[in-house]
Sequence to fold (238 residues):
Amino acid sequence: MSSRFAYKNFTSREKMVTNAADQIARAVNSAVTVKGHASLMLSGGSSPKPVYLALTQMDLPWNKVTIGLVDDRWIERGKPGSNETFLDESLFKGKAKAATFIGLKTGAAKPAEGVSEAEEKLASIAKPFDVCVMGMGLDGHTASWFPNSKGLEEALDIQNPNTVIAIDAAGCPVAGDHPERITLTLSAVMASKQIILMIPGAEKSNVFKDSAHKSVYEAPVKALRAAGERLTVMTDES
Fold:
């Protein structure tokens, strides 16, 4: 049975960011030392942005790091809302631009039509991923696993052998104007060596705590708990 996950409550946002960046940096250095390369799967959003800004100033072996996305909206790189654009404006503005990046968006009209190509692209990233950095919405979603979204059951099927899946989150308020998404499956995330879930603030911390009493379909973030000691939850709720 897996050990309990780590829950780290920092006294300030700055300390949370510093600790998250340091943990990722250690994982990168360790992976490169052991096997010659490292992989990071990253989420968009306001929670991890300061971490990426800190990471890109660090002297890491970025030329031996491959970076992918946990999920993305079906939006072209360069346009607002794209997680590729988000990384361009944060992580890739500094030293991390030397890393290899593999996005999820393809030229297909819809995620369901592009998922096979995205799967092929991600096949070039060695598994298991060294680190998955996750965020969480106030509805309890993480990645693009939105409650009541089309494709959620498949996405959360731990036996699903696929790395990515299309999600239609139409009708899910938190999905906003871009409900068509592509996301890693739970099985791909759970196979990672480390999972870091960032939930800054008391409100998000309470949502995560409450997820323990709900089903994974009501609060998909709950599914990450099964990662045990490979999961680190970081907050600054106090």
Notes: The chain has one domain: 6-235.
